[in-house]
Design a protein that fits this description.
By secondary structure, this protein is of the alpha+beta class. The chain has a domain of 49 residues. 25% of the residues lie in helices and 7% in strands.
């Protein structure tokens, strides 16, 4: 069994300058992207969100419910795939879709 001391790893002076100091700006513009720091929605290191795993499960469950319980339709609208300029990769015009509950889910959804 391999035991890893995460506390010691996060304070490794070979990895971080002044490892015991709180410096969140060190993650803003890292000159070399570290593996695992590409998406820091829940933070990282010892100040990472303790509910990150639960948050990912809740988002996955919500998406699954939307897919399973509703029929989705764009009603003949063409999807505009033009991208917005900026830092993030977002669509210039948001997707418009309409949902209707599936017939076998109406009773289930009416109890919510």
């Amino acid at each position: 069994m391999l035991i890893v001391n995460a506390w010691a790893m996060q304070r490794d002076p070979k990895v971080w300058e002044e490892p015991n100091e709180f410096k969140p700006e060190r993650f803003e513009a890292a000159p070399v992207e570290r593996e695992g720091s590409k998406f820091v929605a829940f933070g990282m290191g010892r100040r990472a969100c303790p509910g990150a795993t639960m948050g990912m499960h809740v988002v996955s469950l919500a998406l699954a419910v939307l897919i399973q319980c509703f029929e989705w339709d764009t009603t003949g609208l063409k999807m505009d795939m033009k991208l917005n300029s900026g830092l993030t990769l977002s669509k210039a015009n948001p997707l418009e879709a309409f949902c209707t509950p599936r017939q076998d889910m109406i009773e289930l959804l009416s109890h919510v």
